[in-house]
């Protein structure tokens, strides 16, 4: 009995040490667990000269949901959110070119270019028509796609999307105008905790070893993210002239305490859209699908169910 207890203790110590000293392994394990719980598989496809990674799951004959992440993010943002949708819908969560595991092509990452890349990706996947959902920069891209490809868009959902000039300036833009560093780009380890606090009202719990690993990974991408952000600013495409072209029902969902993009953006978008509905989540920041995955997924699901005659 003592030998068994000792063996179990040694196993526990070894596992703890592995997770502490090998956080990449810990992250991969957590990601795999979340994929399985959401019913998603990690897949990839060659689109022209780019290797694109994505998650896919749910019934193949179900209506297709395409989930598009924001700036400096990736497809993992949708794992817990997707768990509440794959029973009925086919879910595809992409790594946009330049992000996550997908290739980083030379050239531009402005939303217009990315919207055209998105069109090529969906065509390569054989998706003729889909419900689009985007967060932040991903919402800007999704809205532009819906305006350009109305026949290929079944509905549109925008979670705290970029692309409009809000009546009330957000804290993010106020900081940039003062010449302060972009809080969404991690330059040193301590910036990562500040990023979490800036994006979330209640940041999700992360073990310190995993937090350090994510900070290091973000720092390694700093130069790339700074270049992408500069292109987004220099080649900015405003959504105000594009929104009236969107023909499909559109959900505007926002975290009320978003410090990146102010919730008053809704006041600009709603009158410009033909068919819009609004959901504002109190006590939530810039990424509702991460901070409140179940609640935001249920709000989105209710929107989708309302489309059925």
Automatic annotation (TrEMBL):
<protein>
    <submittedName>
        <fullName>Alpha/beta fold hydrolase</fullName>
    </submittedName>
</protein>
<dbReference type="Pfam" id="PF00561">
    <property type="entry name" value="Abhydrolase_1"/>
</dbReference>
<dbReference type="InterPro" id="IPR050266">
    <property type="entry name" value="AB_hydrolase_sf"/>
</dbReference>
<feature type="domain" description="AB hydrolase-1">
    <location>
        <begin position="64"/>
        <end position="293"/>
    </location>
</feature>
<keyword id="KW-0378">Hydrolase</keyword>
<dbReference type="InterPro" id="IPR029058">
    <property type="entry name" value="AB_hydrolase_fold"/>
</dbReference>
<dbReference type="InterPro" id="IPR000073">
    <property type="entry name" value="AB_hydrolase_1"/>
</dbReference>
<dbReference type="GO" id="GO:0016787">
    <property type="term" value="F:hydrolase activity"/>
</dbReference>
